[in-house]
Amino acid sequence: IPTYDPGEIEPRWQQRWDKDGLYNSDIDTSKPKHYALTMLPYPSGDLHIGHWYAMTPADARARFMRMRGFNVLFPMGFDAFGLPAENAAIKKNIHPKTWTYANIERMRLQLKSMGGMFDWRREAISADPKYYKWSQWFFTQLYKHGLAYRKHSPVDWCPNCNTTLAREQVWGDDRHCERCGTPVIKKDLNQWFFKITNYAEELLDFSTIDWPERVKTLQTNWIGKSSGASVTFRTEQGDPLEVFTTRPDTLWGVTFMVLAPEHPLVAKLTSATQKSQVDAYLAETIRQSDIQREAADKEKTGVFTGGYAINPVNGEKIPVWIADYVLMTYGTGAIMAVPAHDQRDFEFARKFNLPIRVVIQPAGEAVIDPDTMEAAVPAKGSMVNSGELTGTPENKAMEKIIAFLEAKKAGHATTNYRIRDWLISRQRYWGAPIPMVFCDKCGVVPVPDDQLPVLLPDDVEWKPTGESPLKLHPTWKKTTCPQCGGPAERETDTMDTFMCSSWYHLRYLSPNYDKGPFDPAEYNYWAPVDVYTGGIEHATMHLIYTRFFQKALRDMGIAKGPEPMLTLRNQGIVLGEDSEKMSKSRGNVVAPDDLVKAYGADSVRAYLMFFARWDLGAPWNKTGIDGTVRWLRRVWTIMQEPSAGKSPSVEAEKNLRRRLHQTLRSVTRDFENFEFNTIVSGLMELLNDMQKFRQENPGPSKAWDEAVDVYLRMLAPVAPHISEEIWSRLGKPYSIHTQKWPTVDEQAAADETITLVIQVNGKVRDRLIMPVNVSEADAKAAALANEAVQRALDGRQPKQVIYVPGRLVNVVG
Ligand code: ANZ
Ligand code: ZN
């Protein structure tokens, strides 16, 4: 047997598989389909160990599913638009397109070196015009269906990246840009939005998908549903002042109201004497973010407007304040303050000496004194000090107050969601141009289908003006109106790249199709995605956006079904050896290429599956990989050693088969459950037993041949090259990857048993089948519980129980 040389074996097989189209997946209605998807990489330049950690097990599982008889689609592509390309362009003076496509070339080769079963014919790159034509088409479809709209609105703006940022792209207390760390500022711009809020309720329904609890919780919190009431107060000037409250049953406890500083009624409510104070406060708060303003530990600030509103339940005159802890972006931007029962209102009341009135009394507790209370009282109990509703028990309070408000025409039950519409506009160059045209006569006009794509011009210049290069381009934005033919201007904003990645799984189905975003025949066969794998960090943005997208496509009649991906699983993170996040600046980055060069892709794949629980991740451990390398070398020699010498006994073969089929059973189950580390450790242990068997029984053996065959099939998804090479050297039919996954022989896998004779006072009463390694206590207990024994004892207590290991139990009594 030659020595194991992955450097020779691996590229050779990769070329062969490629040439034979081994991983082409085409429609085949004779087989059940399985669409396995792993999150596509951003072409940042290098595939890092995290990509391998995420993708190797996904690939192994796709291979496993294929061997189990599914027609598997496992595609790959690149999320190719976005800021880093543009930043690189500015820094290094390379065109974003050049930078991006050079990186894609490089990363594609790296991905190929992994030996993945990607069907490269289906590669999709979101920056290709043939791709973004359809991103643009979706945009116009959403617009035509009322799901895209334009609105003048304040946005978070990164002065360094010169772009708007989504809520999720702003981080930390200092509100810095996710990409570059620069503190963000507010800017007012005309922006495009998608109406994701239309789907807030439906997005809370996870009943048709198998997704991790953590993701479902993160999405549920992100959507942030609360049930309560809308209550309309009236200002002294007679304007309706609507508030959202989750506790309308505390309406008698309202002692002041608070408006967000941006609230439209602030100017009108502000009295002449309070004006200068109000103006000063506005100037100071407007810069802050919602996140800063909402922080619970923040010292409360605010000012009195000098205006009043009338409480609709009792006609009381309530002072109206402004304070930054009330957000304009939630509810109605105004609150009724109930300091006795809401902690934020309580702190505000104490700070500004405002009255506190208890209106909910917890059962069995002493009456609370508002003058001495030190925190808001949880509003659990019956209503007190509440006019005609006083005495209403907790379980009736909501129902009664809603009826009361409706009768007075002062309010009604309502639901509020925290989720905001999806801001799509980016004032950047390297993205899909938003396909809209502005005409003086016709207004906003979508670019007609036959004029798509709106191509991104290559000849742009970067000037540090803060403006998008598209805006500065001398001719690009000048166009004619698709409706009247008159002169018009193009939208110069490009789309958030999360738009492109919301539907990439559909583009994979037919990346060259030009009559629609996807070929309906491919869609009808492959959709939806059966298993999606990727990082938990996408729980709220990408994974909500893509679900919204699917629902919108369904409602527009473009796609079918409520969900894009049926099963989702998240991998953990590979940290640096120092347990820190891997990063160039820390110098703790592990480069997969170096590992592949040193050990071969199969060893790297197997080690990545072995060294941590996939869903948890772990710090990288350099020394561990040696064990994996040694294991594969042993596989190489043991599996290929020719048989010669003494053949095994029937007993020895039986034992080998038991171990083999037990391992097959657990490996199969582990693949199903995404438990990849125990697959590799199971195979390692089985190899030890096989080696021992072979040392004792080196001669020809059917059980041994079966073990080699089954072992290689189990190994194939994990280490596709070495298993193919050994398989072919043993003269088995090409390719191992098109072989069937072996079936567990349950009889062979069953634990070995013995038959115990059960006696009472020396007389045989029954026989029991027990595991071969049954303990004395278990054997005795089984005998005593036996019905025949009970009958023979006839109520007598056993005096003694004798156990003869492996043979009998005698009950004396
Ligand atoms: C009176 C009240 C009494 C409230 C009480 C709570 C407890 P969630 O659950 O997050 O939906 N609120 C409403 N709009 C607000 C805004 N724009 N900015 C800040 N706070 C706002 O919170 C809803 C509650 O948060 C509402 O119910 C309101 O205070 C406050 F014992 O009204 B509540
Ligand atoms: Zn026009």
Per DSSP E runs of 2 or more residues, the count of β-strands stands at 33
Instruction: Sketch the major β-sheet.
Output: 7 strands, mixed
CATH top level class name of the domain at 225-415: Alpha Beta
Count the DSSP helices. 27
- Which range does the strand content fall in? 15-25%
Helix-strand category = alpha+beta
CATH topology-level fold name of the domain at 225-415: Isoleucyl-tRNA Synthetase, domain 2
Associated small molecules:
ligand ANZ, zinc ion
Helix content: 25-40%
Q: What gross morphology would you assign?
A: globular
What are the segments in which pLDDT stays under 50 over at least 5 consecutive residues? none
Kindly report the average pLDDT value. 93
Determine Rg (CA atoms, Å). 35 Å
For the record, the CATH architecture of the domain at 225-415 stands as Alpha-Beta Complex
What does this protein structure show overall?
With 813 residues, the chain is of the alpha+beta class. The strands form 10 sheets. Strands 10, 11, 12, 13, 14, 15 and 18 form a 7-stranded mixed sheet that branches. Strands 2-1-26-27 form a 4-stranded parallel sheet, with helices on one face. A 4-stranded antiparallel sheet has the order 6-5-9-19. A hairpin with a 6-residue loop joins β23 and β24. α19 crosses α20, α20 crosses α22 and α21 packs antiparallel against α22. The radius of gyration is 35 Å and the shape is globular. 41% of the residues are buried. The mean pLDDT is 93. Zinc ion (ZN) binds next to loops.
